């Protein structure tokens, strides 16, 4: 391959820059095909970048098809080869490549079609298409050719300097946090606000070219006074050969006291040197739909024009250079001296539906309103005709309260700030929504609140930003493209048919509209996605801590979701809407579904999971506040939820989270027994339900096994498999599926020889999706027997269970949520009766996603509703429909009464 084949989530280089470039010059591309297969790639959504761009993506291969020693060749639509960097993302059990990460750089307006081939030999990369990473003791220097960037290894400068075309466009960038000590008072004296700067603890070069470099920076925010260090951060900086852009992925982990530590501002600040006259300096903000707010620091207009012979004002607004002040006549210089100049500018997006632009001349003068709009794309440029810096924050309006600001534009060094939490907004309040000491109880409000558990300490938040260093004032078209790429990063993808053929991600179907009944089913699947997309907008499911999630249950009487009722509010992955959305994307290739699934993956992987502290490695169950429920479980933090996004995009932050799930969650479940309130710990150190607990752990280990190729992770799974195989009732060997579990040895124990039972969450929290893949990867008769037995007996009649186990037990209830189990058994055995049972159970639900408008004074605005909607039902109905079409689609009952009635 074009990278280290060391077993890891990605390459980790120890070489200096010159050997790296020489190595990759030798290992780039070949015209010798590995197996004659040419894989077609297309831009997701058919949106080709309009400026030169660096991109990264993932591609899967069938087992045994591509070896780690092979390389790759990428060609455009006219057959020209492109620079390419690759690295292993995952391996099959035989050691062949399962997923490979790829990076390239494409020119503006590139065609939509590309081809990728696995090859055996290498040839040199095109000259000038590589970047150089120089590692020194005090700093790392990245030279993309288009941009030179210095990254200090210590101190509070995240970026030391940025140069483009010999011009310094930034003298440094730093992370900023404004901490308010306690909640604001209604009146009187207000809490003290202290300034913190990000301080670097560690810098790691994760990739060093030749096409892409990745630098990981870890640290804490340090008070300016030096009295406190808190709020850990992880920032990754991405560079591409020849590019003037830097992608920044910024993550914070809240480790404060939610009763006292109120973040008043959180952002990143860049120093922008300004050498030109005030009237040659410019500030630009992105509005919405490709519109820009653009003004010079000193507009050349007043009561009289600067010149009647030449329209300098018009030239100025186009970003052209205006001559030096000394070249003007005395009366013209008088005007330049007296016309107002403006030092500070800001765009505030304090809600999802409106932004304002303000400016002022200096810090002792009033702000004046300068513009307004609805939804800003979150981009700002500050600079002069000799160059400057643009910064764009992704999902700016969706993640309000946010702002972008330019300060001190009249000085020699302006500050360009991107605020993830705007200082103009109320302080960030992480407290729980209610303070009654006994909580609300599962029986009263479906809310498991326990003292000390409704804490935000340990949750995280990730924000993406795109920096663009320019040697001049960028055109409107360029800035709009920067904003578009920041908000909708270009991604190359393979077709759904290819993903299905590999296969990738287990059991799922391609769309099938071959019969009237299947046409109806596919229409309902489409309507379900469309309805939730509509609900995100109707209900304004936006905000810094909320964007990406959806609500759990609907209140038809109030015509709102049950946003204020305990566990009925934010969903927090309950019954796997994440998986429903990802499988919906896989089978369709639709960009809109991808973006929704991506946002949910970012949210649930960061906000709903603890990354440090007492609950590290666990997630919080659904609640009014994402971290409010006392139930902290592995199922919410499981790696299964991140695999789609990671493998399709190579996102390193998601890779971190999946690795943490494998390494930390097992320890966490031992320290916080998920069944601690109902089972005695005297005999076993902890307990686990076969599902969702053990299956979630198995999914974590499976993911790490494929990412590293290290069989120690497989061994952990097999320890559990052997434990279950020795129990009399297989996966049913426990009351409520509860078993003893030893986190040190990974063994499971039956609590009592007579224990038999089930947990419906074994099926509903990603268990089948893990088991489908695990069965093929393990290829172990013991596990295959156990899983097939489970799919055959779950929801089966008591006489079937008695015939198997000698006990007349009901092990689960039949129904549409569980219909994929008999469907799977039918697929494995070819028995038609099980296929018929699967479809009959699925079609019992009568689920439909037909909307109707409720237009009344009883709601703030007209809303579209679906009768009986719940996210639990939507997610599981969608997953079952998608899987049944794959497993038993040929047995779809066209004459079923529910199908006939629906049509």
From TrEMBL:
InterPro entries: PcRGLX/YetA-like (IPR045793), PcRGLX/YetA_2nd (IPR048330), PcRGLX/YetA_3rd (IPR048331), PcRGLX_1st (IPR048329). PANTHER family: CONCANAVALIN A-LIKE LECTIN/GLUCANASE (PTHR40081), TAT PATHWAY SIGNAL SEQUENCE DOMAIN PROTEIN (PTHR40081:SF1). This is Tat pathway signal sequence domain protein. It comes from the Bacteria. Residues 38-118 form the PcRGLX/YetA-like N-terminal RIFT barrel domain. Residues 132-483 form the PcRGLX/YetA-like central beta-sandwich domain. Residues 489-891 form the PcRGLX/YetA-like C-terminal alpha/alpha toroid domain.
């Amino acid at each position: 391959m074009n990278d280290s084949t060391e077993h890891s989530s990605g390459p980790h280089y120890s070489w200096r820059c010159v050997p790296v470039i020489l190595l990759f010059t030798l290992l780039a591309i070949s015209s010798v095909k590995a197996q004659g297969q040419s894989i077609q790639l297309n831009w997701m959504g058919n949106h080709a970048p309009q400026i030169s761009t660096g991109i990264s993506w993932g591609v899967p291969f069938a087992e045994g098809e591509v070896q780690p020693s092979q390389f790759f060749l990428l060609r455009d639509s006219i057959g020209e080869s492109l620079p390419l960097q690759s690295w292993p993302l995952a391996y099959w059990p035989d050691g062949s490549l399962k997923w490979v990460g790829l990076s390239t750089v494409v020119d503006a307006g590139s065609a939509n079609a590309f081809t990728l081939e696995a090859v055996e030999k290498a040839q040199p990369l095109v000259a000038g298409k590589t970047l150089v990473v120089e590692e020194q003791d005090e700093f790392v220097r990245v030279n993309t050719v288009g941009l030179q960037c210095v990254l200090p290894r210590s101190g509070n400068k995240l970026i030391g300097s940025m140069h483009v075309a010999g011009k310094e466009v930034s003298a440094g960038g730093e992370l900023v946090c404004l901490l308010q000590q306690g909640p604001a008072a209604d009146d009187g004296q207000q809490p003290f606000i202290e300034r913190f700067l990000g301080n670097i603890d560690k810098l790691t070069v994760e990739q060093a070219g030749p096409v892409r470099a990745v630098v990981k920076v870890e640290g804490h925010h340090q008070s300016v006074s030096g009295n406190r260090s808190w709020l850990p951060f992880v920032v990754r900086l991405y560079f591409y050969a020849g590019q003037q852009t830097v992608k920044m992925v910024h993550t914070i982990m809240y480790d404060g006291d939610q009763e006292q530590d109120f973040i008043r501002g959180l952002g990143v600040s860049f120093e922008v040197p300004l050498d030109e006259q005030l009237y040659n300096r410019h500030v630009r903000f992105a509005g919405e739909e490709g519109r820009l707010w653009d003004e010079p620091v000193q507009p050349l207009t007043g009561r009289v024009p600067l010149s009647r012979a030449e329209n300098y004002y018009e030239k100025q607004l186009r970003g052209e250079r205006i001559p030096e002040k000394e070249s003007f006549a005395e009366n013209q210089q008088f005007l330049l001296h007296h016309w107002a100049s403006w030092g500070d500018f800001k765009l505030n997006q304090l809600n999802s539906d409106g932004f304002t632009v303000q400016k002022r001349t200096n810090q002792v003068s009033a702000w004046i309103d300068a513009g307004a709009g609805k939804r800003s794309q979150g981009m700002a440029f500050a600079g002069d005709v000799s160059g400057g810096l643009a910064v764009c924050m992704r999902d700016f309006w969706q993640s309000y309260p946010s702002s972008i600001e330019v300060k001190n534009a009249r000085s020699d060094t302006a500050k360009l700030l991107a605020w993830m939490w705007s200082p103009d907004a109320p302080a960030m309040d992480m407290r729980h929504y209610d303070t009654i000491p006994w909580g609300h109880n599962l029986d009263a409000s479906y809310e498991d609140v326990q003292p000390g558990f409704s804490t935000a300490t340990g949750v995280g938040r990730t924000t993406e930003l795109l920096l663009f260093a320019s040697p001049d004032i960028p055109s409107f078209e360029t800035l709009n493209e920067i904003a578009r790429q920041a908000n909708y990063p270009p991604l190359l993808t393979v077709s759904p048919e290819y993903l299905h053929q590999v296969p990738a991600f287990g059991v799922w179907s391609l769309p099938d509209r071959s019969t009237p009944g299947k046409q109806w089913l596919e229409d309902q699947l489409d309507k379900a996605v469309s309805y939730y997309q509509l609900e995100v907008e109707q209900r304004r499911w936006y905000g810094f801590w909320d964007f990406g999630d959806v609500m759990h249950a609907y209140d038809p009487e109030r015509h709102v979701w049950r946003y204020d009722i305990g566990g009925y509010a934010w969903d927090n992955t309950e019954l796997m809407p994440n998986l429903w959305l990802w499988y919906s994307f896989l089978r369709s290739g639709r960009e809109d579904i991808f973006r929704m699934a991506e946002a949910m993956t970012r949210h649930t992987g960061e906000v709903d999971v603890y990354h440090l502290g007492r609950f590290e490695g666990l997630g919080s169950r659904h609640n009014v506040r994402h971290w409010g429920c006392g139930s902290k479980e592995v199922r919410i933090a499981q790696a299964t939820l991140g695999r789609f996004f990671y493998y399709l995009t190579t996102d390193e932050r998601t890779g971190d989270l999946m690795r943490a799930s494998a390494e930390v969650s097992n320890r966490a479940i031992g320290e916080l027994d998920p069944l601690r309130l109902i089972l005695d710990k005297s005999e076993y150190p902890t307990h686990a339900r076969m599902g969702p607990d053990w299956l979630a752990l198995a999914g974590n280990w499976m993911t790490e096994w494929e990412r590293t190729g290290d069989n120690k992770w497989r061994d952990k799974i097999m320890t559990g498999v052997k434990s279950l195989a020795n129990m009399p009732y297989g996966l049913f060997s426990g009351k409520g599926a509860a078993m003893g579990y030893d986190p040190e040895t990974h063994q499971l124990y039956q609590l009592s020889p007579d224990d038999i039972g089930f947990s419906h969450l074994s099926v509903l929290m990603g268990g089948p999706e893990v088991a489908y893949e695990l069965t093929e990867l393990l290829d172990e008769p013991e596990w295959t027997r156990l899983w097939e037995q489970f799919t055959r007996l779950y929801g089966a009649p008591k006489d079937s269970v008695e015939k198997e186990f000698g006990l007349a037990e009901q092990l689960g209830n039949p129904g549409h949520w569980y219909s994929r189990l008999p469907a799977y058994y039918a697929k494995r055995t070819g028995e038609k009766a099980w296929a018929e049972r699967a479809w009959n159970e699925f079609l019992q639900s009568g689920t439909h996603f037909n909307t109707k408008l409720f237009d009344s004074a009883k709601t703030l605005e007209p809303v579209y509703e679906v009768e009986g909607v719940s996210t639990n039902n939507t997610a599981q109905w969608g997953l079952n429909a998608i899987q049944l079409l794959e497993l038993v689609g040929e047995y779809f009952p066209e004459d079923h009464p529910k199908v006939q009635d629906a049509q």
